[in-house]
Batch of 3 targets.
Target 1
Amino acid sequence: MSILIVGSLAFDDIETPFGRSDNTLGGSSTYIALSSSYFTDKIQMVGVVGSDFGNEHFELLHSRNIDTKGIQVIDEGKTFRWAGRYHYDMNTRDTLDTQLNVFADFDPVVPEQYRDAEFVCLGNIDPELQLKVLDQINKPKLVILDTMNFWIEGKPEELKKTLERVDIFIINDSEARLFSGDPNLVKSARIIRQMGPKTLIIKKGEHGALLFTETGIFSAPAYPLESIYDPTGAGDTFAGGFIGHLSRCETITDTELRRAVLYGSAMASFCVEKFGTDKIAALNLLEIEDRYHSFRELSRIDE
């Protein structure tokens, strides 16, 4: 089934205790699209870039059968740029520079041929833009939305309005507490799910992820990695693996949602092993399936 992805495309300057990478291809939609491309070949992107977004970057996306007709190229502008430095624990970071450039005036226009998309994944952009995208889609089977603390603090009412039209909401633990106003994640999940989305995923970084549905709670572990080089984009990569798996399911059941969380976690665990998109752009299906089964084995107990 087709997946429409709307979000940012960017260049990142990333510094961690274990190295540095400048002019690294990034952006929420880039990570989501590359990750989900291992599960389906029907991926469509809507975004905006400047003239500095070279052919090599488009060629990378095309090599993964990603349709980029919805990406606007502004000839006189520059692509969104972000620079950040991670602390030693890799859980906290300092933003050193943000240049919105052409992204500051991003006005998402969904091409006519994209408007019948069955799955829609909205990256962490302005909730008003997310709603504008949904107004252009005919009858999506499933809508997944991500956000960040900037929008939770700056546009909470707009975000709540958008959530009324969302099936699955993905946020991290600090965002869940901030948005719900409650420190307890179980209570936070109940409060947020009452806003619209029937399914909620709360990411907990190195402590895994929680899935909340109408039938209960599922806790997925984090993969025990010895080397973590760059956590940038891990959450978006998770979303890509998650929606990628669901797109190939005939019926979305609670079991398939749990499997999707593990596939998302598997993809995110690959992402952090190299800087930027380097790792997730060069995987194969056998690696992904092996990592998925490793996740299943982490919590399996033989009776």
Note: Residues 144 and 289 are 23 Å apart (CA to CA).
Target 2
Amino acid sequence: MKFSKRQTLKRIASIIDAKYVGPDDFPVQGMNEIHVVTPGDIVFVDHPKYYDKALSSAATVVLINKEVDCPEGKVLLISDDPFRDFNKLTSHFSAFQPSQNVISPSAVIGKDTHVQPNAFVGNNVVIGDNCIIHSNVSIGDNCIIGDNVIIHAGTVLGGDAFYYKRRPEGYDKLLSSGRVVVKDNVEIGPLCTLDRGVTGDTTIGQGTKLDSQVHIGHDTIIGKDCLIAAQTGIAGCCIIEDEVTCWGQVGTTSGITIGKGAVVLGQTGVTKTIGGGKVYSGTPIEEARERLKRFAYTKQIPNMINEIKEIKKNE
């Protein structure tokens, strides 16, 4: 998330009542998760295991729970609870805005686009030309939809990220301020759910088609001309490259990449990054051809046992 105007380190520290290391007027331009940070951003870290990763990232403002050596060109915000204070900043710069209308007055809807009855269009949504938004679709704040897009009934764009921190009293939610971005010529089936990014974008590439009941987790990027069949669940922060096919009930773990042109057969669990141009199946995932070979060999075991018995009998 980028701020509407540049802030200073001193101003940010005052919002969360934190100490800081660096000049008062150090520029702060936004806040993001570590995988999407750019210079000027705040990133938070609250575990020593990830200190080095945060301090060496592109972010120039590190919200951290220990005063450490500050890298050159960067500044620190010292907090006893960076997770909590990151949420405070999200609430301050991207506060929830209740809607007063089914279609927000701030929404921009393109030429020859049809929004069917009972669809909800939130604040600052942009929908392109020649789109069809069917009934009971919910499009959350700040979503961007391209031209020639079809979204079928009951689909939700822009739900919050599934991101929680375990505390003694229960789960603490990391607030979401990101968007869902849908490119041109996409079709999204009924009852799909596309979570917005925590601070960045969840993106569906041009020409991609989603079947019914597909879930796309926060900050995932899906490329061009992909086919994703029913009941597939893509976890957060994944990269699905162009022309990937995922058949029904595929599931992934977070943070993986599926290479260009890969085909993932039904009910496969994608537990690791896989290369493009191949066909995969099973859990744990492997190339489908290798799995079929092993099945074929396994079927020969009873015959092999019988042959061994016959040999021993004739000895």
Note: The mean pLDDT is 96.
Target 3
Amino acid sequence: MNESKRVEIAWPGLDITVRADLDQRNAALAQCLWDALPYRSLQGHALVAGYHLYHLAPSHSLLYTSAEYRVDRRTVPDGTLFCSRLQHLGIKYGELTEPMMATPIGQVLEEDLPALVRAGREVWDSVYTTKKPVVAEVRRAGEPSGHRVPRLPISDPLLNELVGEVHAETERIWLDPPQELVDLHQGRIRSGAGSYETVLTTLLFVNGETRPLGYSCYGGLVRAALDGMPMPWLRQMTRQLAHTPAEFLGYCGLDTLWGFTQRLLDGLDRIDSQEDYISVMAHMALYCNCLGGWNLHLFPWEAGDHLRRETVPV
């Protein structure tokens, strides 16, 4: 165990703190997390996979840092920490059903596992029922809490201005829900989206478009650039992948996202270097992933409480 790589994960609103040691299974990913500390983030909970916590970490490098070791999440001990290219810090605290290969970076101390289980149950209640946000604080052990969203430089002045605004908006909504999503979830939809005045249908489609826009589109474009895709192809793929979902989300009420996207697409031909391209797309990924986290928190999951899984014979 390396004392210099011990972290504390606290949920002050729950009065719960657990300690974890980062290890060498995926040393580069663990370093990404270590370099991002300290930070605060809206705590989320898996909605399909089982007893699993995750939140967004403010680290651009998680989008592309390679993993050395992968494991089926179902097979590792409770308390295992994971980092992923979705910019998540995940923590298993019980049974998982999804057969997903994941990249472990550390382990919660054995004596803190009961506290982790309590946190998991409280966070589930927050996400599924009460909608009262739970904030996670992640810090190096023995050091103070804090928070920052890193800002990447862009050489082109106009795109640098855009990225500055995206960065500022990401910081603004990091721990406070964006008003556009609050309005949407309360049925205030200026465009009239939602056939026969329905709201749940619109919320479902917004969730279905927001998450892949950050995870797959912008995160994937960052990795494609680092893999050497030529700039003309990158520009073309950006136009193909980003325009339609962002336009739809703008129609549903996410005007800020659609405005940023239009300015990005208008300025694509100004990007001459892969470094600038990666920086712009990384900021868009983090912003979209932040929107996705809030949408998952605000979504009225309890509306489906009458639908319960039945035991299926194997």
Note: The mean pLDDT is 96.
